[in-house]
Amino acid sequence: METMFKPVSAKVSFPKIEEKILRFWKKNKIFEKTIRRRPKTKELVFYDGPPFATGLPHYGHIVPGTVKDIIPRYWTMKGYRVERRFGWDCHGLPVEYELERELKIKDKKEILKMGIAKFNEACRGIVLRYTKEWERVIPRLGRWVDFKNDYRTMDPAYMESIWWVVKSLWDKGLIYEGYKSLHICPRCATPISNFEVAQGYEDKKDKSVVIKFELLDRPGTFLLAWTTTPWTLPGNVLLAVGPKIKYIEVSGEKEKYILAKEKVKEVFGQQKFKVSKKISSKELVGKKYKPLFNIAPRGKKSYVVVAADFVSTEEGTGIVHVAPAFGEEDLLTGQKEKAAFVQHIDMDGKVTKMLPKFKGISVFELNDRVIEDLSRRELLFSSFDIVHSYPHCWRCETPLLNYAMKTWFVAVTRIKDKLIANNRKIKWVPSHVKYGRFGKWLEGARDWAISRNRYWGTPLPIWRCDKTEEIEVIGSIKELEKKAGRKVSDLHLHKIKNLTWLNSKTGGTMRLSGEVLDCWFESGSMPYAFSHYPFENKKWFEEHFPADFIAESIDQTRGWFYTLHVLATALFNKPAFKNVVTNGMVLAEDGQKMSKRRKNYPDPEKLVREYGADALRFYLMSSAVIKGEDLCFSEKGVVNVLRRVFLTLWNVYRFFVINANVDQWKTQVEIKSKPKKLDLWILTRLNETVLNVTESLEHYDISQALGNIPPFIEDLSTWYVRRSRDRVGPTAVDKEDKDLTYTTLRTVLVVLAKILAPFTPFLAEEIHKNLTDDDSVHLTDWPEVRTRKVLDQELLKQMVLVRKICELGHAARKEAKIKVRQPLKSAKCKVQSAKLDVELLQLIKDELNVKEIIWQKKKIKEPRVELDTEITPQLRVEGEDRELIRQIQQLRKERKCRLDETIDVITPRLPHNQGFVSHATIARDFKKGEKLAIKK
Ligand SMILES: [Zn+2]
């Protein structure tokens, strides 16, 4: 028998369907067609943030990746052309770190021994190591993206545009070199920018110590100062007191101590002390004290008490140890006081020759050594362990050091007002991020340290005169070629570090400064660099900036979102993007970070093989993670989606296809009869759902959009199909009503497939392909419902009441312990509203299996339903026949009878109304036998 629709199996494997559809998409170039078929004049501009390809895609990529798929698919169906170029982040610490780990390189000296050229080329070699995996995994997740036209931050054209960005900022006076206290990673031996620091706070165990500083003019009297970084103590040059703090001198057993009055009890704890006198901060300022380590260079202020406003009594003793080389407040105080500068630690975290007794040991070891040493010299007052939140390197997890150094900055604080103003023009989803996490971050913005003392990155295009320190910033390859007098094809450090030229004014030589750029500067330059602006594509750029839409995880408020915003504001005083969707972080089920080592989460690829990508997408997109909150990932959640949403829909779809095929129904039929209320209702619900999903997606709100779909599928399955079962199939007789039902159900499924297409692209394609002649659901237009006014609100309300009455009726039956198959005489409905029309009453009668509805309009808030539970002999007989029908249907199912297959029935009890039972079960004949059985 030839059928209209491809048969649909009850035993569905979604992963298998997905594999098949992937092949179909690839073979028929569906993705390419979805772009090509939309006009160039109507574009939605999307920027893709570049990931590092030094690892495999994980949930942190999959969540924003899914958002980056849903939104473009939606706008494509709305008629827009949405190009989706993939990008790769190729430079920076992550790559260098990866290589160092592989080559077992411990520090920078070993890199220099190896040679920068060799090291950089080795980095280049591993950068794209996993791209093939990405190109396999990303499409398998249903994400459409253009890998062929990808961009790479290490391409010469990309790097040249970065130089243009640097030069432009320099010309605007937004780049400067400064001595600043930064966090450095001693292992990576490079400064870390403040937003990178913000990403790496973790608990760390340290020593909290109180140190004794003896007054020069009063031996035996000590100032007490507190620190949790004893390694900075050799760098101490000042002690700071607060002008408003009250100090006190106390006597211990042998010695006298000075500290803030309100800290005495805390600092002394169990130790005995006697208060001897009050002291003002003024009396303390200017006092000299004996250095702990006498290593400060002569000639500058050192080992003296000063006043400083930042001193508080929140922690410590109210007297602060100041080491200008190792802290922000310290550096500022030191600069203000013109104090000596003691930097006894190298950038790689080793003690320098300034402190001969500990020369060469690591800063982390130095903590204990200093404590030991001071303790032996009786300069340690107290010491105990603390656990505090401390910044760590976001790449190698080494604790960071506060370290004053010369570095290049973008003067972000100078454009702060503009940053804040431009943020007002951006639509954030979820909206609270705008003035919350991102807005607050902008308000606290600091100057951005952009230079890294590393090798694999875009070099800072800064040349310096070796005679006068005069600076020249180069903004293009051509400019460099002209200066250096030779061809340049690669801008990496090892290729250009020896390019010099004569400074004709000074007679000096211009030499490359030698730092590379923060890789976040590179990804933040993406809107210009990926099209090689302004060297090429000028017009194209003007039409494609800012982006209409971007998406990443919420941690990017301090990463990519931030650097995009800073650079776009600095260059054009515009935001870089108009709409941004940001998602929360995915944690393991136990609430911990997902960790490869601990294997506390399921491998995404395995999950896709088991349940399919659509289920994973649906689960993630309907979870809290899409509202910017953290999600504790649960495999069970994916299984639930499969069972509750996908299988429900699949069963509706299968119900339609099986019956339509048996009835030989054709889509082209002309409907003559008027639609029933039930049909009108599901179509109204469909339109309502389309409207809701559209409005939400229009506002980039995926969570809200998707939230509309499961309730609709539920309505479709548990009400429309449930109440339409008898309208179709071989036992139904009303041909026109059949056509009506099929037409309605097919319309619903086709439209539903369309609005599901952005979210579950495979399942939508599978259903849509079978029910229509279209090539692909993704090439169709988004269904349009012009206005909410077309929705019959009255009908929606009435159907809610109908279902409420049925729910109450079922509950009453349950209480009376009478099965639904047993017909009852009547149901009395006590309801506030007017009587429903015949069709709706019939729905109640059918659902509750009662002969009559008695409607009583009453002034009550909640409807009530009472059943007439008297079972007359006639009702009993009918009930018994219905029970028999149920049992036969069960056997038909077990024996896998076709829907229209006739059978013979052997039964211990013949039906009372043979015509009725035989019609319902397509039975030819009934014979008496011991046990109920059927014969095909
Ligand atoms: Zn590090």
In whole angstroms, the N-to-C terminal distance is: 19 Å
The small-molecule ligands in this entry are:
zinc ion
- Percent of residues in β-strands: 15-25%
- Count of alpha and pi helical runs: 33
- Major pleated sheet: 6 strands, mixed
Shape: elongated
- The helix-and-strand class reads alpha/beta
Using only C-alpha atoms, the radius of gyration works out to: 38 Å
- For the secondary structure, the number of strands is 32
Mean pLDDT: 94
Query: Share of helix among residues?
Result: 40-55%
Strand order of the largest sheet: 10-8-9-6-5-13
Low-confidence stretches: none
Written overview of the protein:
With 936 residues, the protein is an alpha/beta fold. The protein has a six-stranded mixed β-sheet with strand order 10-8-9-6-5-13. A four-stranded antiparallel β-sheet has the order 4-3-14-16. β18 and β19 (471-473) form a beta hairpin. α23 (613-621) crosses α24 and α25 (677-698) runs parallel beside α28. The longest helix has 28 residues, at 635-662. It is elongated and about 115 Å long. The two termini are 19 Å apart. The mean pLDDT is 94. The structure holds zinc ion.
Short summary:
With 936 residues, this protein is an alpha/beta fold.
Characteristics:
936 residues; alpha/beta; six-stranded mixed sheet; four-stranded antiparallel sheet; 32 strands; binds zinc ion
Sequence-ordered SSE layout with sheet pairings:
Layout: H1 14-27, H2 30-36, H3 59-77, E1 85-88, H4 93-103, H5 108-114, H6 116-127, H7 131-140, E2 146-152, H8 156-171, E3 175-185, E4 190-192, H9 194-198, E5 201-214, E6 221-227, E7 238-241, E8 247-251, E9 256-260, H10 264-268, E10 274-279, H11 281-284, E11 304-307, E12 319-322, H12 328-337, H13 363-376, E13 380-391, E14 401-410, H14 416-423, E15 427-429, H15 432-443, E16 448-449, E17 451-452, E18 462-465, E19 471-473, H16 477-484, H17 493-496, E20 501-502, E21 509-512, E22 516-517, H18 519-524, H19 526-529, H20 538-543, E23 547-553, H21 560-572, E24 577-583, E25 586-587, H22 604-611, H23 613-621, E26 631-632, H24 635-662, H25 677-698, H26 702-707, H27 709-724, H28 735-756, H29 761-771, H30 793-816, E27 824-831, H31 838-848, E28 850-857, E29 864-867, H32 873-894, E30 903-907, H33 914-921, E31 923-928, E32 933-935
Parallel strand pairs: 1-2, 6-9, 7-11, 15-24, 23-24, 25-26, 27-28, 30-31
Antiparallel strand pairs: 3-4, 3-14, 5-6, 5-13, 7-12, 8-9, 8-10, 14-16, 17-22, 18-19, 18-21, 20-21, 27-29, 30-32
Helix pairs in contact: 1-29, 5-6, 14-15, 22-23, 23-24, 24-27, 25-27, 25-28, 28-29, 30-31, 32-33
